[in-house]
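Onboarding guide, step 5: your first structure request.
Type a short instruction followed by the sequence, for example:

Predict the 3D structure of this protein.
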Amino acid sequence: MTDRSIHAKTHPAHLSVGQLQVAWRVSDEPMPAECVYDPELHVGPYNTIESAEQRAARESVARDVCATCPALLSCGLYALKVRPASGIWAGRTPAELDGLARWHGTPEVAA
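The system replies with structure tokens like these:
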């Protein structure tokens, strides 16, 4: 996977250690992201429709996990770069990340 293809909005929970090194631009082994232990918590259930209440509860727990994650800063910077369309990234939704990026003057990423 090249540097360009890693930034295809892949949640850190689905990246290998080597891919995280490239995505987060670190030379040594990146800090382990807590989301790798339960990816569905952060990206939603695969092939299942969840109610608004279920989604809100899942996202609340995901935010709590992110809040204590040692990779929070690296994940947040990565999320601002790739501008995800779904999931919880560094404790934020895509809409929250977009608002934060606009506030910081970060240009939008072409889809």
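Each response can be followed by summary notes, for example: The CA atoms of residues 4 and 23 lie 9 Å apart.
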